[in-house]
Backbone:
């Protein structure tokens, strides 16, 4: 059984239909990359999977780990094992990063019926992951994302992912705005998360992150549907060819919307 | 967007958990207010003549204000006329004339405090906190008295202070808030029934947190307590008050007065967690909280800090202030005020700089949810002689939902050109993006709101004594539960 199975997904936000019949299957242990031009629906897909309420699903099904994902609220989906690394991580003034992360971990553990971790048990786990991402411990006593640089925010997302250990991690343009060193550290964090029991979906514009994180499958998303799927070589091809050809193609092959 | 607004609205709809009534026998004075009632209260309390005369003077002043219709109307609050003749001004639990130990206290009252989480029985007392429990108008128990007495500290009910330390009461009563201060202060001076009294002698650092827990129980009764704290030279005391009341359909009046006096090099830290019944979701019932609190930094290098967490009451009208008379004295005001449903709060502070190099800090955090209206009203006054005075003011408002309001009225009056004044203000809304972020990490909606709000209030919470910071945080969470759902 696949970890994630999306069939005929239609979704709209603010009255505009963005996803127009998307199909995608992701198995545990795999890393998929979703690529596509601006406005093609990449971020919408990520938000729908994270169950953001302002994104309305109008048709289709999504099965996650054998359960109906579309019946879940945001926090349920999170506790079932879906994690989204945000394109624009949000600031929460006055709440310490470490405190926030422990609260999140405990919310998930509680949902799964596992004992909550106290601050003392949490610390070693947390320190280990910090080292992996080359993050300064001082950042952890600061408020969540407040005053963080762009690169620090993105690394903080990967840190959260590595502590929360999701079954399915969705990285929404995590590579945007990163310098080459930060990109490498983020990639290292993502690679360390690869596991036979976990799937990772990397949403990106560019091929450059894929130099460091080698995907099992690459999908091209254009105008709300996946128009082509292939191996890592597809990303290279896109880098050379661009999305132009696919956009023209999608107009002709669009299914009847009636 | 609309769904998140609905949820935010729902979070504001949590029931009041302290709304039970205790069945006990009580003695009342007849309803209404006149000179006879004032005499009766004084007589029931077996007060010395000077107290009766003090009350009568206050009553006559209040009556003249009442006739001149001088009840203050400048605050950003709306309520129907208060019928001052329809209030019972004194209610006390019936008891044996002389209470030798806690075991003689009405067990119903003991149980009430247990339910509120304030155990008075000796074996269960909170470690490190001495409690004075005020039930309706009367102090019913004070814990850890002996231990405090060893250090020379007086911590007792106001009535006991009048009886045993009349010279201190006479010297300081009304010295910071005279009966002529305002309408509600005059009313309090005439009819106040009890309250707490603290005296910390020279050079003594009070080893315990002192705490008074106020409970209104009787129906149609006003509560008028008066607290007086005197910190003698070089002493230190930290004091906390908490308050709750049963659920009633009618509004009840609470008009308290607090006076603080800090002499040379003395420090007083005064914290309030106010959780009077706020009224129901339609805005029926709830306590009208008209309170006058002021501290006088009378001595050099003295310091007074007010920290308040105001989550209850239908109406809050409260401006704890500092008169910075001594040179180098410091005044601080840290406030969290939350209004939900139809609650209204008009609160802030007054910092009056008189001495040289006096400093004040004001940090006000207003949270509005439901149809709540929250107003910060502050005054910073730098007098002519206050050379080198400094003030820092920060007023932040947080809005939850789209039916509530936040207002800020800062007054600044500077008569000395050497003053440094800083003022910062901000208004923000709990964003859907913040909620989504926290929920995506697994937190429930209401825990997410709680977390955002407690982050917003952090600067104030860290000023509270440790034991109460956690309590205040929980209270805030409960007061908001259901406003997002």
Residues:
């Amino acid at each position: 059984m696949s970890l994630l199975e999306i069939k005929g997904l239609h979704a709209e936000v603010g009255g505009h239909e963005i996803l127009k019949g998307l199909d995608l299957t992701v198995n545990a242990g795999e890393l998929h990359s979703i690529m596509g031009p601006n406005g093609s629906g990449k971020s919408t897909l990520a938000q729908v999977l994270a169950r953001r309420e302002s994104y309305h699903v109008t048709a289709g099904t999504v099965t996650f780990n054998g359960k109906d994902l579309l019946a879940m609220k945001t926090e349920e989906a999170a506790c079932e094992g879906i994690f989204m690394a945000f394109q624009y991580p949000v600031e929460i003034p006055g709440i310490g990063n470490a405190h926030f992360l422990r609260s999140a971990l405990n919310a998930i553990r509680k949902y799964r019926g596992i004992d909550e971790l106290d601050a003392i048990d949490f610390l070693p786990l947390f320190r280990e992951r910090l080292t992996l991402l080359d993050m300064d411990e001082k950042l952890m006593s600061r408020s969540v994302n407040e005053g963080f640089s762009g690169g620090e925010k993105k690394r903080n997302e990967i840190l959260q992912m590595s502590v929360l250990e999701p079954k399915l991690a969705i990285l929404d343009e995590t590579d945007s705005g990163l310098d080459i060193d930060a990109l490498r550290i983020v990639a290292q964090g993502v690679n360390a998360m690869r596991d036979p029991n976990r799937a990772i979906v990397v949403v990106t514009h560019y091929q450059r992150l894929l130099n460091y994180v080698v995907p099992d499958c690459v999908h091209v998303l254009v105008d709300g549907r996946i128009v082509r799927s292939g191996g890592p070589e597809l990303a290279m091809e896109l880098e050379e060819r661009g999305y132009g050809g696919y956009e023209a193609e999608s107009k002709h092959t669009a299914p009847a919307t009636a | 967007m609309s769904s998140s607004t609905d949820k935010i609205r729902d979070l504001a709809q949590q029931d009041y958990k302290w709304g039970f009534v205790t069945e006990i026998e009580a003695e009342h004075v007849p309803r209404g207010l006149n000179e006879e009632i004032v005499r009766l209260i004084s007589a029931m309390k077996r007060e010395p003549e000077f107290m009766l005369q003090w009350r009568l003077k206050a009553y006559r002043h209040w009556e003249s204000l009442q006739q001149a219709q001088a009840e203050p109307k400048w605050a950003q609050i709306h309520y129907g006329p208060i019928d001052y003749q329809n209030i019972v001004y004194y209610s006390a639990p019936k008891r044996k004339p002389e209470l030798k130990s806690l075991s003689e206290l009405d067990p119903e009252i003991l149980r009430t405090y247990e339910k509120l989480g304030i155990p008075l029985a000796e074996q269960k007392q909170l470690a490190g906190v001495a409690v004075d429990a005020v039930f309706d108008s009367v102090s019913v128990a004070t814990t850890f008295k002996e231990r405090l007495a060893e250090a020379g500290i007086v911590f007792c009910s106001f009535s006991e202070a009048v009886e045993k330390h009349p010279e201190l009461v006479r010297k300081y009563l009304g010295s910071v808030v005279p009966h002529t201060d305002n309408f509600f202060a005059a009313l309090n001076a005439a009819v106040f029934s009890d309250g707490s009294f603290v005296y910390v002698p020279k050079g003594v650092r009070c080893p315990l947190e002192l705490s008074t827990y106020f409970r209104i129980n009787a129906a149609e009764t006003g509560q008028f307590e008066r607290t007086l704290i005197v910190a003698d030279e070089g002493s230190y005391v930290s004091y906390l008050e908490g308050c709750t009341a049963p659920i009633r359909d009618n509004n009840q009046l609470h008009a308290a007065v607090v006076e603080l006096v800090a002499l040379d090099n003395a420090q007083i830290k005064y914290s309030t967690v106010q959780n009077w019944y706020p009224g129901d979701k339609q805005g029926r019932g709830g306590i009208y909280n008209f309170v006058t609190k002021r501290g006088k930094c009378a001595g050099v290098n003295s310091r007074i800090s007010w920290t308040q967490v105001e989550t209850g009451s239908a109406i809050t009208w409260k401006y704890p202030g500092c008169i910075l008379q001594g040179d180098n004295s410091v005044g601080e005001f840290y406030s969290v005020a939350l209004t939900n449903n139809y609650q209204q709060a008009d609160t802030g502070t007054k910092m009056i700089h008189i001495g040289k190099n006096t400093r004040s800090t004001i940090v006000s955090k207003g949270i509005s949810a439901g149809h709540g209206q929250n107003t910060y009203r502050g005054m910073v006054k730098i007098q002519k002689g206050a050379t080198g005075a400094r003030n820092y003011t920060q007023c932040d408002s947080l809005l939850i939902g789209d039916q509530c309001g936040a207002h800020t009225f800062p007054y600044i009056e500077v008569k000395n050109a050497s003053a440094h004044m800083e003022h910062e203000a901000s208004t923000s809304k709990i964003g859907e993006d913040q909620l989504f972020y926290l929920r995506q990490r697994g937190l429930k909606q209401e825990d997410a709101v709680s977390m955002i709000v407690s982050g917003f209030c952090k600067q104030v919470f860290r000023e509270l004594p440790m034991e109460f910071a956690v309590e205040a945080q929980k209270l805030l969470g409960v007061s908001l539960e259901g406003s997002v759902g």
Summary: Chain B has one domain: 2-480. Chain B is about 25% helix and 35% strand. The longest strand of chain B covers residues 286-297. Confidence is low (pLDDT under 50) at residues 1-13 of chain B.
